[in-house]
């Protein structure tokens, strides 16, 4: 492994004792650099190895829709690990605390964890680092180019980030070694009763799980294969048309780490699909996705007005008191009760399917800015709805997508107009010129 992929958070202890991979963002067995590093370390030291997941209930407004998807995926992780002789342990409670206690009770020698730029995981990791007596390493198993290696600072836009990533991408494009069976047993309490856990966890159950997408590592691979065979060649042409199914639908898998972005990129590159479509897809998967991690890593205010660039804060302040032609509150927006049938259709798509089309996400968030009292209120509502309904919510892509739409993050100034100031505007008329709005509205109306 390229050593820049890992960071030492704390060197400590004598290194003796079992090795733990504290799995959080990267919930898979294959193509996982954090797990591969933990395994290699344990084999080298002839020490036992376990994968530990700490389950925080009531996580950033997630509902049974997201918990169900995640827990079903983790159940498959447990089975795959068992085949390699590696125990899987599920702890409940505050993760920073739970991991620290577990490590102390079990005399753990080293903890390896995966990386997330988001505040919650960072605070869990900080807490664990403070309390652990043993060493803890962090491995960026999510990004193709580790976030700290891609750039040492917050990037302005895709145009400044793109050359940095492409320049060093090849040095990080190695195949992750296949996980080896672990020969040093660790007799830990067995994994959870998954059925019971799904029934018992205290989460909001008012937003149901969805049936159109199957969770887990195997399903993620199958979704990728289907996309390579049937969708990729038309990606460039169809991806921005919400009346077609032109996207890959990989974001829920990428969000929960049920598939690695590097695997997706490798298979896309190897495929015989149309070159322009491959390039368009790689731009989203590599540049846009990893730029979101860059923003959240270097900007602690990634989910608020204060995180916007100075030009957009200025222009939005100039237009703060502009009259709004329509004003809606959260229940009206949540219930898709606006005057705009296209917006209502997008909201319905999100509520019913847990995944709104990418083009509609931009339109949807921009209209929330147009129809609420302030940019702060627009941010609050858009993030709340995105995180509550989307299967891929609570992701850097979500915070950045909302901030791009409402606060011009990674965008440039456009012609000035009411409410938006110089932040890019999108209109129903523009949408109608791009795709068959009627057909999308009709389709969304048929969703249950
Ligand atoms: C307001 C708003 C909210 C968003 N919320 C989320 C969210 O909660 N979670 C999320 O993963 N994405 C979010 N996005 C980004 C993007 O819309 C989704 O990643 C994409 O629609 C997911 O569908 P897909 O996997 O089928 O995409 P595809 O078009 O098949 O793209 C493949 C992958 O490339 C990446 N990608 C594509 N578009 C973008 C983009 N604009 N920015 C960053 N990465 C991208 C994603 O990882 C995606 O899975 C949001 C965008 C906006 C404007």
What does this structure look like?
The chain has 3 domains: 3-142, 3-Layer(aba) Sandwich (Rossmann fold); 145-176 and 216-298, Serine Threonine Protein Phosphatase 5, Tetratricopeptide repeat, CATH 1.25.40.80; 305-445, DNA Cyclobutane Dipyrimidine Photolyase, subunit A, domain 3 (Orthogonal Bundle), CATH 1.10.579.10. Helices cover 50% and strands 7% of the residues. The protein has 20 helices and 6 strands. It has helices spanning 33-45, 64-82, 95-106, 119-131, 147-150, 158-172, 194-200, 217-231, 235-238, 251-255, 261-270, 275-298, 310-318, 330-334, 341-353, 358-370, 375-389, 396-407, 428-434, 437-445, and strands spanning 6-10, 19-23, 49-55, 88-92, 110-114, 135-139. Strands 1-6-5-2-3-4 form a 6-stranded mixed β-sheet, with helices on both faces. The longest helix is centred in the middle third of the chain and has 24 residues, at 275-298. The radius of gyration is 22 Å and the shape is globular. The chain starts with 5 loop residues before the first strand and ends with a helix. Flavin-adenine dinucleotide binds at residues 239, 247-251, 254-255, 284-285, 288-289, 292, 358, 361-362, 365, 386, 390, 392-393, 395, 397-398, 401-402, 404-405. Flavin-adenine dinucleotide (FAD) binds next to helix 10, helix 12, helix 16 and helix 18.
The gist of it:
The chain has 448 residues and is an alpha/beta fold. The chain is 50% helix and 7% strand. Flavin-adenine dinucleotide binds next to helix 10, helix 12, helix 16 and helix 18.
